[in-house]
Amino acid sequence: MVDIRSLSVILENKIILEDINLKIDKGEIVAIVGPNGSGKTTLIKTILGFLKPSSGIVHINGKLPRDYIKDGKLGYLPQKSSFDAKFPVRALDVIMFGLVNKKGRKKDKEKVAREYIEYVGMGGFEEYPFGKLSGGQQQRIMIARALISRPDILLLDEPSTGVDVVAQENFYEFLKKINQENKITIVMVSHDVGVVANYVHKVAGLNRRLHFFGRPREFFQTKVLESLYGLDVNLLIHSPECVTCQHFMPDKLVEGVKH
Amino acid sequence: MILDIFTVDFLRNALVGGVILAIVLSVLSLFIYMKSWSFINIGISHAAFGGLAIGYLAGISPSLSGSIFAVIVGLIIGYLSRTNKLHEDLSIGILLSLSMALGVVLISFSNNYNSDLFAFLFGNILTITTEDIVLLGIFTLFTLVFFYMFFDKILYCCFDDELAKVSGINSELLYYSLLSTVAIATVLSIKLVGSILSSAMMILPAATASQIFWHYRKILISSLLISILTVVLGIVISFEFNLPSGSTIVIVYSLIFFILAITKRILRLDV
Known about the structure:
- The complex is a heterodimer.
- Chain A has helices at 40-48, 65-70, 91-97, 106-119, 135-147, 165-182, 193-196, 216-219, 222-229, 250-254, and strands spanning 2-11, 14-24, 29-33, 55-60, 74-77, 153-157, 185-190, 202-207, 209-214, 235-236, 247-248.
- By secondary structure, chain A is an alpha/beta fold.
- In chain A, strand 6 (153-157), helix 6 and strand 7 form a beta-alpha-beta unit.
- Chain A is globular.
- Chain B has one domain: Orthogonal Bundle (ABC transporter involved in vitamin B12 uptake, BtuC).
- The longest helix of chain B is centred in the C-terminal third of the chain and has 39 residues, at 171-209.
């Protein structure tokens, strides 16, 4: 699905990504994690074709990102959308943006958009000003906008930013559901590995270089975490069964301690 | 008395030209409002002065030289701000001052230095000729066709450029097309109504309509109506009381804006 080979990205004479090799299969949910400034967003933007690799290559289904985008089979949810909170559109208009490049009558597009707003659990908010929705509600509308074009792959950059913990977990559950129902490949950037680990098939640990790529369980090993984040890492793990949260040291996690 | 307006050629031209201008500029004003481009518009309108001056001095059509100059300046401002090479305000500030200064220097060679400068700032809607109306009509037709064809895509780009790009839209082409349309509209309107009224007609309609409506469709329709009403009212009032038409129109625009802004506060409209 996504094939990244020997990818390096240099921006303003600074190496942001170095020799990244990554292969994401169809239907997988992959979280790209790493400390601040580790190049997570740069990697997503390179997969999207917004940034050109300094060396190496990115292919999505055998095509270069710029060619793949033209097929309209790629969905994207930005980190912090650049739209103005007072932008004068309804929630339904935002979902319909996902169909702007598709042929068809506006009436039919609106009908489909109404189905998708129900699908993301936002029925009743069709006519609501988008800017007045909460962070979690906006996120669901944006997901509906991305899904309505029936993408093969969904890229999300820090989807949990500005969303409370409950909305976050609901959102990840929802991602899992759409992955299972639609077989969509999902690649998301997150700084909160403790949360996403419960919902993804694989984790990519990034800090300029790719330090780890594998199952979430294997990710929580002292040497992986130390190599990625440096020494003295404290990790807060959330799980669906979590009643009270505690700080865990990585070595305890190796033993599989969970709460 | 009011009916006299329709029997006098130059007043009839002013009304027809003014209404056509009101239509095209209020449509553009929606996008200027959504993109927060009011400063870009003012930058382009001042930059156009350099281009108009070149035309006056070289003996070629000021509209043509002004349009070319304004489009170039508009595209430079757009490129600099889009690529983050220079802060938008800074790039506009520099280009605005440079073009304005260049225009003043060039116009100073003209014998009618003061009147040319005054005409640039305030124009004279009463001097609109039939040829101006034809040119304006053609431009308005092209602009409306452009928006009819690409309205949803441009709206999407204004909402979020990167998202639009991922959806397969050529957002760069639309961005620069929109900027060029704003630049040409600015030059054409400057010649007819002056730089100050041109900016007012491109900024105030949507800004005024957004005081009472929050959805783009309602903003568009009401800004069209507000703009047409303002131009007609402005011309009629200026004719009745022997006032400068351009300035009267700006005052009417501003009054409507303030009345709606105050009404919004009093009625506590959640817009």
